[in-house]
Amino acid sequence: xxxxxxxxxxxxxxxxxxxxxxxxRNGFAATxxxxxxxxxxxxxxxxxxxxxxxxxxxxxxxxxxxEDLESQLGDVARQVAPDPVARVMGIFQAFAGQxxxxxxxxxxxxxxxxxxxxxxxxxxxxxGRYFGRVSRAxxxxxxxxxxxxxxxxxxxxxxxxxxxxxxxxxxxxGDPFQAALTPALCVxxxxxxxxx
Length: 196
Fold this sequence. Notes:
By secondary structure, this protein is an all-alpha fold.
């Protein structure tokens, strides 16, 4: 009688981390489970002990992206505390830096939203949760800045952020986040030019 090895959460986490790298490079649809298994140097049976399907793995990867986002937003909030203008600047600049380094976290969520729209509600919801969290961070900054309509202000900031995210993915650079920063700060009532 064969003995099953114990479940190891570190193996599950490593599967998700490796899959994240491969999905960033190739996309979801173009990546087969065999590609990920080969990179992990594990058997197919071992992989399926940790993930029942590719969709479950994708959901785990999107959850990792969400955890990265929470960490980044927390770092920005700790660095600039109550200043809403500095917080919005920090969010855009943090993501510009990520895009420059070729690891913009939101890229996978954006890609999932595009690839799974109307095909997989659970994966589409994972992607939506990411941008919903960004929107809530912007709404908080708008409220603290005394914006007349924080919900509408957050909507504008989120659209600028999403546009910058798409452009950063296309250009493989962070400059779209920098370009979006001045109009983003204008939403908060700030006057000036970030580049000046």
